[in-house]
């Protein structure tokens, strides 16, 4: 992880535009199974700032069935603080 954060990110940021990098993220996320997606979310969502949670979960909410979105939010409950849960429940 340290290598990714210190060396690889610098190479990526120096050679690719933000939109291209975000496109990779979207492609990767679109290929995850629901189980893989949730495993990823339970680590990522708690680490994000509220505006980043808005962007990520807002995009998910706009593209997923309501049942899947609501189940994901409820599933994140054990992994987020009370304040984070309140925030993500209102996205």
How would you portray this structure in words?
This protein is mostly helical and 91 residues long. The protein contains six helices and no strands. The chain has helices spanning 2-15, 18-30, 34-47, 50-63, 66-76, 82-89. The protein has two domains: 1-31, no CATH class; 33-91, no CATH class. 81% of the residues lie in helices and 0% in strands. The model has no long low-confidence stretch (mean pLDDT 90).
List keywords for this structure.
6 helices, mainly alpha, 91 residues, 2 domains, 0% strand
Strand content: under 5%
Provide a count of the helices. Answer: 6
Distance between the termini: 30 Å
H/E topology pattern: HHHHHH
How would you classify the quaternary structure?
single chain
What share of residues is helical? over 70%
Point out poorly predicted stretches. Answer: none
Count structural domains.
2
Secondary structural class: mainly alpha
| Radius of gyration, CA atoms, in whole angstroms | 14 Å
Q: Quick one: biggest sheet?
A: none
- State the shape: globular
Average pLDDT score: 90
| Topology, number of strands | 0
């Amino acid at each position: 992880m340290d290598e990714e954060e210190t060396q690889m990110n610098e190479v990526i940021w120096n050679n690719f535009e933000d939109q291209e990098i975000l496109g990779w993220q979207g492609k990767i996320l679109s290929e995850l199974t629901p189980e893989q997606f949730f495993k990823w979310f339970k680590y990522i969502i708690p680490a994000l700032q509220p505006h980043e949670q808005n962007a990520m979960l807002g995009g998910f909410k706009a593209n997923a069935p309501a049942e899947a979105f609501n189940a994901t939010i409820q599933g994140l409950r054990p992994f987020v603080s009370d304040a984070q849960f309140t925030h993500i429940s209102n996205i």
